[in-house]
């Protein structure tokens, strides 16, 4: 399998970590979606990550959107089941993923408004940026409350919930170092430190 993505995308990182935890072989193909339209051949939405099945070279052989990809990848190997099959436990893990993805979604929108070269300073909207960052702040508080003093986000073992939270927090450290979530939420800092010791996280640090 080929995973089309970038080294800075938190969504790509989530897929890379899942595939590493599942001990699946794949080739990472780097793609700059801002500098090239090549991704459109595999994903008409022009986004990464995009997982391409072996021997395929068109949209019909591709799986895109990180949530869809990790759902599929978790079925490919019995090693380290990351998403419960059914019931309340499954819903809880996917809700954690949605919360983490929401932080990244809002953060990316705020960052693009701040930095997109095709906007002048006069065209940028501080109100829009503040609205998105309010979502980030609220989601961090919800994460901290949900984690409490538990060893893992959901249930009694490592899951997609922890991977998603780790990717969101790692991306905030990378793109928004001014956000003081480590000081504000020590339990999230401890959890991130624990996750950062896993080889899958070490091998996928954004750069």
Automatic annotation (TrEMBL):
Alphabetical list of Pfam families matching this protein: GST_C_2 (PF13410), GST_N_2 (PF13409)
Domain spans labelled GST C-terminal: 86-207
Domain of life the protein comes from: Bacteria
Annotated GST N-terminal domain residues: 1-81
InterPro entries listed in its UniProt record: Glutathione-S-Trfase_C-like, Glutathione-S-Trfase_C_sf, Glutathione_S-Trfase, Glutathione_S-Trfase_N, Thioredoxin-like_sf
Name of the protein in its database record: Glutathione S-transferase family protein
Provenance organism: Pelomonas parva
Lineage of the organism: Bacteria, Pseudomonadati, Pseudomonadota, Betaproteobacteria, Burkholderiales
